[in-house]
Amino acid sequence: EVQLVQSGAEVKKPGESLRISCKGSGYSFTNYWISWVRQMPGKGLEWMGRIDPSESKTKYSPSFEGHVTISADRSISTAYLQWSSLEASDTAMYFCARSLGGVLTGYHFDYWGLGSLVTVSS
Amino acid sequence: DIQMTQSPSTLSASVGDRVTITCRASQNINSWLAWYQQKPGNAPKLLIYKASSLESGVPSRFSGSESGTEFTLTISSLQPPDFATYYCQQYNSYPLTFGGGTKVEIK
After folding, report:
1. In this predicted structure, what is the pLDDT of residue A102?
2. DSSP per-residue letters across A11-65
3. Which residues of A touch chain B, with CB atoms under 8 Å apart?
4. Interface test with B, best of A32, A45, A98 (most B CBs within 10 A)
5. What is the mean pLDDT of residues A28-53?
6. B positions 57-86 inside 8 Å of A (CB)
7. For residue B70, what pLDDT band results from cuts at 50, 70 and 90?
């Protein structure tokens, strides 16, 4: 059974750093890309960026590039989303999602993690 | 960026109704469009990919179609589990973009 298991909820202060994780199981981790999607409270879905775990190649949305870092450790089938300095506006649910690669942008997201809630408040 | 304009933003319907949600792309996306369903507190779930291909396990009352840059999700007979928010998403070019969502409510 394919699963993307995300790390738990986090409460942080502005300026702090954070890394959340997404562990894939039930499939070959390096055969699929992992994207991160933000959902702010009561709002829609926003694609942040993705990683090809086989080569650790990343692509970011311009809206998020420079503010977050996406990485992966294929030895433990885990992708990460990282902030070096959180802001209150980073408060949101963050989903990881899997897509098949092979074309420039990858394909649709066929499996999603349950989400990691990040709260940033002083 | 490709803008995905979804309408309506909210839809009130009754069980058994035929429901249509529209998503318009700001430029050609070569049928690279997916539809997702999201219920409160849950992750999105894939319904349709490549504009009209039904994901395995999704009920056949869901269907997708396209005409140029306009895409449609149709629920042929609305059922109680279908009350949710629906999103379209293009994966033709970066950055990948979603529509604003359509909330299907009970009338």
Report:
1. 74
2. EE-TT--EEEEEEEESS-GGGEEEEEEEE-TT--EEEEEEEETTTTEEEE-TTTB
3. 35, 37, 44-47, 59, 61-63, 95, 97, 99, 104-110, 112-115
4. A45
5. 97
6. none
7. very high
